[in-house]
Fold Calreticulin.
Amino acid sequence: MNRASCLLLLVALFATAYSKDYFTEKFEDKSYEDRWVQSTAKPDLGAFKLSHGKFYGDAKKDLGIQTSEDARFYGLSAKFDEFSNEGKTLVIQFTVKHEQKIDCGGGYVKVYPAGTDQPGLTGDSPYHIMFGPDICGYSTKKVHVIFTYKGKNLLIKKDIKCKDDELTHLYTLILNPDNTYEVRIDNEKVESGKLEEDWDFTAPKRIPDPEAKKPSDWVDDEKIDDPTETKPGDWDKPEHTADPEAKKPEDWDDEIDGTWEPPMIDNPDYKGVWKARQIDNPAYKGAWVHPEIDNPEYVEDANLYLFKDLGVIGFDLWQVKSGTIFDNVLITDSVQRAEEFGNETWGKTKDPEKKMKDEQDEVERKKEEEDRKKSEAEQATKKSDDDDESDADDTKSPHADDEL
Ligand SMILES: *[C@@H]1O[C@H](CO)[C@@H](O)[C@H](O)[C@H]1NC(C)=O
């Protein structure tokens, strides 16, 4: 190992050793029920059940909490020691698997302030961060990243597509103290940027100068008619002309049939509307650019990323078609640690999970194929029986004659 990679490894080890997990949950057995609080705010909230689902990579490691009732709201949350992400990176990560071919339903987590009323959790409970996939029909297939700022929920202005297959996927939100962020799916970056630019935390920094106007003599026509060109004198010809081949029918009677007129045909000499050749406009000044000024409404906030009292994480969602499994929840201060945790959990089971799913799909495909063949065969037998019967009918008399 050379010096550089040795150093890298040390840095990596250091980062991991000194990272702090604020919350982890792998849902490996029923004991999660002691850590998670079911909301009782409404009488008909849906129930989560412990399950690895129809297909999985590891029967134990892939246990997670699965939504088990259709067309329900869900409300389940867990608390952790209150902390502030001041001056630190904040990573929120979890896996979600829509094995039910979801048509409409949330797949996100919400992170709440400490002291949130957990038994009273509803969709109205104020949260700090909402993050994760949301699917509804064909039009909504996105990753939500919502921050609550000065009492308002701010949605990310970029469109981040979520996964819409039936496999388990890892979702990671990284929030940095320099007010930048990154979203990863399956440990790969899908979006990143500056908080200030991608959410409307405050009025924009620069605005078009309201005083500035496009000068009235501004020329923004890029092309003009070539002034050296004029319409040729013999250009204009009628579009239609009397058919020179047509002849008045012999039996035409002007008195009965009216005055005979030859039918009109397209005039072969017609050239259409004359247009001058287009040339570059020598007076063209380019598109007018509205000058910008600093926006007096803009308020700088160096702490957009900061949440001082994080304390609860929860699944507050609506699902039309249940069956989603959540697992491997992590809140930490290290990207490296989150990546490792993702690798150890989702990274280890994703391939065997896919293998089992593919095998099940194959069995299913074969079964459908056999069923199809069987029903085709049955139809064919039925048809030939019918044919035999009618054949029998047809041949009855000759046979009968023979026998006689
Ligand atoms: C996670 O796994 C990927 C793919 O195998 C690897 O490239 C990456 O270095 C791993 N990350 C960590 C922190 O172990």
User: Anything to note?
Assistant: The domain at 19-205+305-357 is CATH 2.60.120.200 (Jelly Rolls). The pocket of 2-acetamido-2-deoxy-beta-D-glucopyranose is lined by residues 336, 339-340, 343, 347 (CB under 6 Å). The radius of gyration is 37 Å. Residues 246 and 262 are 6 Å apart (CA to CA).
